[in-house]
Amino acid sequence: MQTLYNLRRELKSKANPKKAKALQRFFKTGYGEYGEGDIFLGIVVPETRKITQKYKDLEFKDLGELLKSKIHEERLTALLILVEQFNQFQRALLNHNAVSKHKHSVVINHYTTRKHSATMLHHSAMTRHSVQARKQIFNFYLKNTKYINNWDLVDLSAPKIVGGYLLMQSHKFLYNTDAIASVLYKLVKSKNLWERRIGILSTFAFIRQNRFEESLKIAEMLLSDKHDLIHKAVGWMLREVGKRSQPTLEKFLKKHASKMPRVMLRYAIERLSEAKRSDLLSDSDKVRRGGG
After folding, report:
1. Which of 80, 88, 188, 280 could form a disulfide with 199 if both were Cys (CB 3.0 to 4.6 A apart)?
2. CA–CA distance from 106 to each of 59, 211, 240 (Å)?
3. Residue 156 phi/psi, 5° resolution?
């Protein structure tokens, strides 16, 4: 039975104290560290995903309770359920579009205009429902960012929910970047480390569509960020841009490499040739020493 009580009981039944200790070290849960106070049960992500599938229809009320939990795997499960629900509505819309396209062809050739109109109205209602459902998930996510407070929680959810929704909105407004800028810029200007990471990771959805403007703009805004988890995230997104368009990455690096934190730069250039990596790192070091 899909209840919050049963989910929590199942998670606890999979607890591994030895693994939990290792995860608490790995995710820096000690005093003064970025994950301070986070509690782990010691459940690996593939196992958590299996449990997610069994409880994927939980409502916001229960997911909100999970997100407020001090137990890392409970928060992760809530986020994976949200991702699954978001994707379900996306798949439902795509499948409905495909079926409707076929039905419209049949209607035009064999049925009355009245039946054609009814089909169109049903399609329109399905589309509105899917869009509204994803908007609700997106809004719920942004209202609960204070509980999305470790890097794996961000990385496994932000590109799909925040990035996926904003990508949908940008298509709706014909690629008008102003439609998404207010959300992303608010996140990356936040004093909260995890909201800034959500901001840059959300642009992964755009990168996958070979749209780089959003990622490059956010990367520029985060060049002077002080936290290495942001340096790594920005470098990772720049590397993903380079996988799809090396000239675009190299143009960005030509302008900004000298100002990029060392970790950010190393992540960004990881897939470049050894010679190019060496030159960029050397030039960057010269600037840091005041010699270039």
Report:
1. 188
2. 38, 36, 43
3. -85, -5
What is the sign of the dihedral through the CA atoms of 197, 199, 205 and 207? negative
Q: Is the dihedral of CA 203, 206, 208, 212 positive or negative?
A: negative
Residue positions counted in the chain: 292
In angstroms, the CA 198 to CA 75 distance is 16
Say if residues 75 and 148 touch (Cβ distance below 8 Å).
yes
Joined together, the tokens standing for residue 274 give 């050894």
Q: What are phi and psi of 97, to 5 degrees?
A: -60, -40
Residue 116: CB atoms within 10 A of its CB come to: 16
Joined tokens for residue 101? 């396209």
CA distances from 218 to 163, 196, 223 (A): 13, 10, 9
Do 164 and 205 touch, CB atoms closer than 8 A?
yes
Neighbours of 258 (CB within 10 A): 16
Distances (CA, A) of 231 to 24, 213, 282: 22, 19, 19
- Around Cβ 149, how many Cβ atoms within 10 Å? 20
pLDDT tens digit sequence for 145-167: 999 999 999 999 999 999 999 99
pLDDT beneath 70, residues of the chain:
91-129, 171-179, 286-292
Looking at residue 108, its pLDDT comes to 46
d(CA 23, CA 15): 12
